[in-house]
Write the structure tokens for this entry.
Amino acid sequence: MDQKHIRNFCIIAHIDHGKSTLADRLLVATGTITERDMKEQVLDDMDLERERGVTIKASAVRMLYTAPDGETYELNLIDTPGHVDFTYEVRRALQAAEGAILVVDATQGIEAQTLANLYMALDANLEIIPVVNKIDLPAAQPELVAEEIENLLGFPAEEVIPVSAKTGENVEQVLQAVVEKVPPPSGDPDAPLRALVFDSHYDPYKGVIAYVRVVDGALATNQKLRLMAAGIDIEALEIGTFSPRMTPTDRLETGEVGYVATGLKEVQDVRVGDTITLANKPAAEPLPGYEPAKPMVFAGIYPVDNEDYLDLRDALDKLRLNDAALVYEPENSAALGQGFRVGFLGLFHMEIVQERLEREYNLNLIATAPSVVYRVVLTNGEEIEIDSPAELPDPSKIEEILEPWMRVQIWTPSDYIGPIMELVTNRRGVFEKMEYLDEKRVLLTYQLPLSELIVDFYDQLKSRTRGYASMDYQFSGYQPGDLVKLDILVNEQPVDALSIIVHRDQAYEKGSALVRRLKEVIPRQQFKVPIQAAIGRRVIARQTVPALRKDVLAKCYGGDVTRKRKLLEKQKEGKKRLKKLGNVEIPQEAFMAVLKIG
Ligand code: GDP
Ligand code: MG
């Protein structure tokens, strides 16, 4: 297709505002898929995504659209991941487009990711087409939301298109706006090939499939290609477009979006942001902005049953095939046995991976408290990075510990400012500013240590605001902190997997809360079990699990049989997730307790 008839665009929205539904509706309106296919959300491939309504991986679909001017246009819809942890991927996907449809829910108004995504789209110089979605709902207030869009974002209210992605109302107008407002791609067809990789997935037959936007030059089959950042040469086994399924083609011209089957075995080799060029006629410079993904949050992941270790390794290997950001290495814990230290982009990424391991691979897992990456300056001047409390050197060797801080933005109805302030203050947050969006809603900006965000912060925020607040965060830099390692001893033995790094001012409070909680979840033994929290050799909190007085069943003898059976069943269930430490059995809940004492 000639360049003037190409439009590349994406859809940006806060979660649940209707991005996927609108995407599907555009595919139906252009005849790319049938109404029946639409039931399956084409752009959300994984079950987990569909269930959570979260689009995790970006993808791209080509549509042909005949506009009222009689001309046929090639519209490439690039789907972006909808999650704060995937900011880098979102930015790359936005770079592959010239325009963005900004979707705002007519019953909700502008929310955290509406703005965060809009700012990224503006950064990428995209033409914005604002739409208000879900106008079919009785609670919809399209005029009010259009005004909000004018006041907050500066787009004239009368240009905001009111649509229903569900019924299809006014969706044709959106397609027309894409053709009229989004500029055609401006690359140079005569320059050496430069194609931006904005996503990838692993295909068992064709190897890693790179999703590309041809910026300059053209791609053809059987060319020798080079991944510039990775420094790997490949032969394009197949090139094609998503229409919406993978459809081979001979060429991808300047400005077009499609895929390259690389034959490579590891997505890690085909990084988002890399530039594909010709091996024998390479471009002088790669496209700007490449960064390797950097994990920010680490946790130990262990099988409950030690015999599942190899299954866990296989499952991680498989997940990694499609998740270039996932890193892991074997780790040994005295308490939990053999497992892995796993690195994630952020807390949502961590949740998704853990859930997939348990659900898709049927693994029974114990995860330790997540840790951020600390920078430790040693007394000898050396600086090391650690991502686990176990790696923290002896305090006598530490000059200073630095921890990552985040800039956190919270959108909330003004009624909840008090509870949010309280939460953030408890989490060592520093207030930066408060902006009123309208009479009822505010945008609060804070600086918070990442370590405080990864433990139960989001759930707390949601529960304190009845689900009304939304948040977004970005890394803002490393800062020194008065941090110490808090160890937990069960029956005088340190349990490595329960250690956490905490701020000194919070050590006593957290230590007390943790031993109290552990006392509740560690079952009674034949003997008394002391549970202690300690900093170095100094015990700062202590509880004791009293010895078992009688057999659990003793009190039931002669009594109700069903009750007896129930008790036995309960005990059996509890056993499934027990880890034996010395002569004390520690249940799964004990390891979870650390996650809930924020
Ligand atoms: P995304 O997270 O932005 O991709 O949002 P989805 O497309 O998954 O939509 C979130 C929810 O809103 C789903 O339950 C959709 O069925 C629903 N939804 C999306 N668009 C509309 C609409 O125009 N009208 C109504 N009534 N519901 C919609
Ligand atoms: Mg979606």
